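Minutes, project check-in
Item: structure for the 137-residue chain
Input as provided by the requester:
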Amino acid sequence: MGTSNSNTTRRKPLVGLGIVAAIIVLIAVVFSVLPKGFKTSHEDIGSGISAVVFVYDPNLAVSNSQTEQMNEARGALGDDVAFLIARIGTPEGDQFIGKYQARPAEVLLFEPVGKLVKRQYALKSATELVQWVNSLN
């Protein structure tokens, strides 16, 4: 009986370590699949890469759908394009909206040099966004 008790005592730390390792792996997986957030500052416009800016209005249902499409397009285009948000009611967002006379739920495309070249109301699919950006090349 002493041997059985000794084996049980040795297994407890291993089980605990296994549980901790599983939790760490689970947390890592969850964070890896979460979409990256969008910058709300706009200094990337004119920084040498194309920029897509969405005028985000939290009161419009299309805003969440458009950001989902932007995440998908970002996955296809990578870091060669800046995907930005101009959120209504924030100092940065309101400054952008005033400067470009943008409207809620509008998507704007900027060339790498910072020139506004296209604008359209949402919803633009991920495929349309990719085509939009690729049309600059």
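Outcome recorded: Helices lie at 2-33, 61-77, 91-100, 126-134.
No further action items on this chain.
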